Write a sequence for this structure.
């Protein structure tokens, strides 16, 4: 299933985004700031996650006019979010010609049981995951890129760290098991058997694995890369900081040079005040975005 | 062999080079650039790579490197090597006499895999938001074409591909580059 021509093209674009920063933007002006700072792609959404959190209500796909404006303004890939399970929003975004769709827990889910069957789309999808089972279920549905969910709009990296560490640990554990043990693992992770087998053989997901949800400083981005992320998504962090341009540039630098502490130091020195952060433990269960989707 | 590792699918290139029998080193700084004999510029976003080159003052070292040592650019790397870039226009190292139009097939929905002919044998070519080479200078040699446009070109020591040989298991394109060393 994994090596179909269509799937290779979908994950091929994700390959091109590796080592880069994908930035959340709500309009063309922000998209331009992101592109100028060195973003590899922009993610169009109606409001940045911290505003969605603050303002409440139903968060939906971005207005089409805004996405069109963004697509007309920047030359880098444009992604857009649809609600979990919202087949029609996904089809609309495909018809619009966006380069990637994020079926995202940041928006209010349209279906609290099912995700979109992404295999029947020509446009590639990225989906969030908190653990290996969730990542492999999304890949089974056709996602060509995974991002760990973290807790969007929190400015707190702890959940992103937890999710990345969990996935990495669960993958490593599979690599030391014998083939007789893999069906029981598929049962435990509630994941497709052939994908469990793939991870056991290769020690990694069959698609790129990026990090998202809570990156609020250059060092946060470097940390995500240290833990095994192949690129990062930054949401509220950039346009909720006091100087988005400098902030975006610093995160881009730290993501490329994460192995070099002196370069991350240089990037951090350029940093203005970050966004305000939230203590995840003080959030009500109903306020958590990461627990949306299964 | 160095692989420019500012951003993009540099890991896939390193693997292809190893398959073709070369040792690959990731290049992110002036110091690491000085330690290699040839360089691959991978696929990725050319605008992002340009920014990182300016943040790290890699521009002049890369131009000097290219004046004496071979560079192979794929997709974004090809855009960076070309003399003229359009759609939109942007600066480039101008190490090869080529005109390149960015995202010329369209958006991701227009990405495709095609069979092209390389030295009489079919080669699978993966085009992802790929550029098109609109003009090849008199010193350029076209190795493969797709829909009438050149997709694999050498000029002097340098080589460009608008597709991604690093995303297939076929080592022939990397082998051509290594042969020219």
């Amino acid at each position: 299933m994994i090596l179909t021509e269509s799937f290779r093209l979908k994950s091929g674009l994700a390959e091109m985004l590796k080592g880069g920063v994908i930035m959340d933007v709500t309009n063309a002006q922000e998209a331009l700031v992101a592109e100028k700072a060195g973003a590899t792609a922009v993610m169009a959404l109606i409001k940045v996650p911290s505003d969605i959190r603050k303002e409440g209500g139903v968060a939906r796909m971005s207005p089409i006019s805004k996405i069109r404006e963004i697509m007309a303004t920047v030359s880098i890939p444009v992604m857009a979010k649809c609600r979990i399970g919202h087949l029609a929003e996904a089809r609309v975004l495909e018809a619009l010609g966006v380069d990637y769709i994020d079926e995202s827990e940041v928006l209010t889910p349209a279906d609290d049981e099912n995700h979109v069957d992404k295999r029947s789309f020509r446009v590639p999808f990225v989906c969030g995951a908190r653990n290996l089972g969730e990542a492999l279920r999304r890949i089974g549905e056709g996602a060509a890129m995974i991002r760990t969910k973290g807790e969007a709009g929190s400015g707190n990296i702890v959940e992103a760290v937890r999710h990345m560490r969990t996935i990495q640990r669960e993958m490593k554990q599979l690599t030391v098991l014998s083939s007789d043990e893999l069906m029981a693992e598929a049962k435990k992770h509630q994941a497709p058997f052939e994908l469990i087998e793939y991870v056991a053989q290769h020690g990694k997901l069959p698609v790129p694995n990026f990090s998202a949800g809570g990156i609020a400083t250059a060092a946060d981005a470097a940390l995500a890369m240290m833990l095994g992320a192949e690129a990062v998504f930054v949401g509220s962090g950039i346009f909720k900081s006091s100087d988005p341009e400098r902030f975006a540039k610093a995160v881009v630098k730290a993501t490329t040079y994460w192995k070099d502490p002196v370069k991350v130091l240089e990037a951090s020195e350029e940093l203005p005040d970050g966004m305000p952060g939230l203590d995840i433990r003080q959030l009500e269960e109903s306020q958590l975005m990461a627990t949306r989707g299964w | 062999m160095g692989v420019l590792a500012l951003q993009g699918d540099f890991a896939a290139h390193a693997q292809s080079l190893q398959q073709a029998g070369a040792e690959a080193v990731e290049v992110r700084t002036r110091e690491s650039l000085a330690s290699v004999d040839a360089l691959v510029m991978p696929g990725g976003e050319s605008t992002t790579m340009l920014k990182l080159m300016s943040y790290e003052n890699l521009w002049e070292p890369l131009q000097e490197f290219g004046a004496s040592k071979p560079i192979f650019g794929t997709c974004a790397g090809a855009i960076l090597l070309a003399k003229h870039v359009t759609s939109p226009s942007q600066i480039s190292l101008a190490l090869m006499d080529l005109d390149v139009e960015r995202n010329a097939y369209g958006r991701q929905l227009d990405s495709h895999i095609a069979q092209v002919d390389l030295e009489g044998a079919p080669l699978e070519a993966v085009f992802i938001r790929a550029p098109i080479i609109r003009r090849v200078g008199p010193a350029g040699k076209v190795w493969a074409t797709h829909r009438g446009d050149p997709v694999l070109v050498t000029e002097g020591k340098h080589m460009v591909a608008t597709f991604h040989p690093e995303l297939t298991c076929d080592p022939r394109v990397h082998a051509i580059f290594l042969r020219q060393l």
